[in-house]
Write a structure and sequence with these properties.
It contains four helices and eight strands. The chain is α+β, with helices and mostly antiparallel strands and 168 residues long. The strands form four sheets. It has a two-stranded antiparallel ribbon. A two-stranded antiparallel sheet has the order 3-4. A two-stranded antiparallel sheet has the order 5-6. Helix 3 runs antiparallel to helix 4. It is globular, with a radius of gyration of 18 Å. The chain starts with 6 loop residues before the first helix and ends in a 9-residue tail after the last strand.
Length: 168
């Protein structure tokens, strides 16, 4: 926008930068919570009254996709938001996330809109794109390929075989 060089473009750029700064400040002030197992992490939702929804969803944007939005990276060598993201990532990919689905072929995040036992390949793809660990990437790729029944096509979601008792 700035390259347009008009007064209107410069005003819009200034307004967008102000808004981005206010959003970051709000996330820092209200969106980072202290989890008993994972430490400082991002909440999926906060209500402004002190309550938070701790989960992640396979859709984009998601907590897992934070590095894809250039908000934080998964690189341990950069301080600040990156540590909070890494803690959030550990949470999102754990059984503490109510929409984490674990099965024999693939394990990934699902979401409230598709119900339990269904994980989205999209979440595995995001996990791959935000990982810095070759073994994690390799495992996710194997799970994705294995979930296509040899057809090479992804369903919008993948049924994860697990025990109903495990779903709480």
């Amino acid at each position: 926008m700035e390259k347009l060089g008009t007064k209107r473009a410069h005003k819009l750029v200034a307004a967008m930068r102000t808004m981005a700064s206010e959003i970051r400040d709000g996330i820092t002030k209200y969106g980072i919570i202290s989890h008993p197992l994972f430490g400082a992490m991002y909440a999926f939702e906060v209500d402004g009254y002190g309550s938070q929804n701790l989960m992640d969803d396979a859709n984009l944007p998601s907590l897992l996709s934070i590095p894809m939005m250039d908000y934080a990276t998964s690189n341990r060598s950069t301080p600040g938001r990156e540590e909070v993201y890494l803690n959030t990532r550990l949470f999102a990919l754990s059984e503490e996330n109510p929409y984490w689905m674990h099965g024999p072929v693939m394990s990934a995040i699902g979401g409230p809109h598709i119900g339990p036992t269904k994980a989205w390949p999209l979440a595995s793809i995001v996990r791959i794109l935000t990982s810095e660990h070759e073994e994690e990437i390799r495992t996710e790729l194997q799970g994705l390929v294995s979930s296509t029944d040899g057809l090479g096509e992804f369903s919008r979601w993948q049924f994860i075989t697990c025990c109903v008792d495990d779903m709480g």
